[in-house]
Amino acid sequence: MTLTELTNNGVKVARLAGNRDLNEKAVKAKMKSMREYGQLVPAIIVDASTAIKDGLKVVDFTTGEEIKDGNNYVVLLDANHRYSAHLRLLEENKKVESDKQYKGEFYFVYSLNPSVSIEKVLAEINIATTPWKGADYVKGVKMMVEEDLPTLDFVSELTCLGYSLDAASKWATFGSKISKAVLVRAISGNIDEVLRKSNTISRGRTLVEAARKSFSAEFLKSRTLIDWIIGKYDDTVDEEKGTFTKAMSHFLANVQRENTEKIEKAKGTRGGKPKETIIYEELNILWKKHMEENY
Hints:
Layout: H1 3-8, E1 12-16, H2 24-37, E2 43-47, H3 48-53, E3 58-60, E4 73-76, H4 80-92, E5 108-110, H5 118-129, H6 134-144, H7 150-160, H8 165-173, H9 180-187, H10 193-196, H11 201-212, H12 217-221, H13 224-235, H14 244-253, H15 257-264, H16 275-294
Parallel strand pairs: 1-4, 2-5
Antiparallel strand pairs: 1-3, 2-4
Helix pairs in contact: 2-4, 6-7, 6-9, 7-8, 8-11, 11-14
């Protein structure tokens, strides 16, 4: 079926709140492709009433308003970027001469196996077929799982800011415990205990907030600093681990700007020390000095 047919029948298009965010670069790439070749593959949809009945939050694709009654809506399970590109191309037609206007139609197809749950369909489309990025996996779990998962919420906060999934996991758990595999299982209903535990969140929040006082947002998004912090924690004797967070947060919040700039601008040399080694050596010097002066 086509968008024109849906519109003529009074049916609007919606999307699942929490499904992967629109990426401006991806939308523009789709616009270029669709302007030249049209839509090559139909978008997969389900009735909005079915998604709402399954407990999923549905929003109007254009306005973003939540849909409570889905009788006059279908929901995109994929192709959000393609559909957005199509709408923009139609909008651009208003400013283009008729012979240069986009003439493409947008096509939809219902999920061919209605016995498969929306969650499973999403997992297959967005994980097996078109792999998600780390942040998309987190959004997928938050969209599908109703259970309160504080650790996942913290990881979500970080990935939404551009942290890699691995970096966010390390700030939250001091390890790569929240992996794509863990999140895929959660989407399928098998929730690992690491997502339920919340005993390490306070430590992670304290440290990342302290680090933000001295280091740039871009630097914190990588694993470099948190890997160094974890290494220092592992080197700490058990008797002193109880005070580690206090000491480390005080250190992170008080690194002088000239030192952070030196760390953030560090570059490895061919045949010499890699960038991470140079950064760790500088941090070690500052840490040792801080501990000697304050503890």
